[in-house]
Amino acid sequence: MATLLIYSGIHLKLKSPRTPWPEKLKLARFSWISTQCFLPNKEQVLFDWTSHALTCFYNKKVDVPSEVAEGLWAYLDDILHSRKLHNVLSQGKTISLRRTLAQVFTSTSVLQEFHLDSNIKFHLY
Q1: Which GO terms describe its cellular component (predicted)?
Q2: Which domain covers residue 76, as residue numbers?
Q3: What pTM does this model have?
């Protein structure tokens, strides 16, 4: 039961418009590295949240402070280069990349700043 509460609390705080963006980013970072955070399909959930936040920022659907947007890119970079993601992918699991985030990659100069490991493969949807 405690696991469900931890999951519900994290998911709700990340999605809530009442949670300040800096707090959301801290929570997402903590959730990624914490072994005490139990989210079903945690890696995909956090990757999706980050992708959605960045897409909304670039489509001007939400007001995200620029320092938080920079933090989201840094967080995404940390995820992509993490041992945790490498371990998940080496177990044969996949992480899906939203097509809208791929469009953000191609429509901005951020793609030049990130060097993806050649072993990382994404499924676009």
Answers
A1: nucleolus
A2: 2-124
A3: 0.76
